[in-house]
Amino acid sequence: QAGIYAGICSAIAISCLYAALALGPISIVSPLTAVVSAVIPVIFDVVAGQELSSFAVVAVILILIAVVLVGFVPGDKVQLPSLPAFVYSIGAGLGFSGIFVFLDSTGSDSGLAALVVMRVVGLVLLIAGLLVLWLRQPAKPFIESLTDWKLAGLVILAGMGDVLGNVTFLIATRSGALAIAAVLTALYPVGTILLARVFLKERIALSQGAGIVLALGACALLAAG
């Protein structure tokens, strides 16, 4: 059952995330989603009785602050998200929280069974959503968008990365606390910004640099604890 519930959360999270990213701005909605997806599992883990060391507690707080800093781009023309973008971001964060909590509830003896069930359920729901879109939109443009092979290649790469992320998260929760795994997962905007710097030559703002340094320091605290 955990895999089924995680699959439902997966479909919600993916749909809401891409809707939020489409509305933008990405620099705000992405970290907002990350923070929500981290805070809920932390609260759940603490309420469930998980004991964290003092190092871990400080590290969790620092990582949440780091995620906010990484997503903050100062400037006079900073665009704030619209209400729909804000709602979609929160929805995506809640969806990812559900994935984390339900995957964490599976026993280590179940292997990757819950993950496979989650992917199947999520895929079925997303295909159902695509069919609804196909019925609501002109058929030709919709089919053309599905047969864009360059786009399809990017989608396949994104899907492979998503699966790899889910597998490694499952391994992490079985090796340690859900709270720690969730907040470390929430650091994905750091990777996005560093890749944009390397491949797109985008400038890293001072606040973002501070967030990256803070995140590295928090990870060092976790290792020390």
SSE layout:
Elements: H1 2-23, H2 26-47, H3 54-70, H4 83-104, H5 113-136, H6 139-146, H7 149-175, H8 178-185, H9 188-199, H10 206-224
Description:
Helix content is 80%, strand content 0%. The protein has one domain. It has 225 residues and is mainly α. It has 10 helices and no strands. The protein is globular and about 55 Å long.
Average predicted confidence as pLDDT: 82
Number of H- or I-type helical stretches? 10
Helix content bin:
over 70%
Strand content: under 5%
Radius of gyration computed on alpha carbons = 18 Å
Total strand segments: 0
Overall spatial form: globular
What class do helices, strands and sheet pairing give?
mainly alpha
Give me the strand/helix succession: HHHHHHHHHH
Q: How many domains comprise the coordinates?
A: 1
- Characterize the biggest β-sheet: none
Q: Which regions are unreliable across 5 or more consecutive residues at pLDDT < 50?
A: none
End-to-end separation in angstroms reads 34 Å
Name a few traits of the molecule:
225 residues; mainly alpha
Short description:
The protein is mainly alpha-helical and 225 residues long.
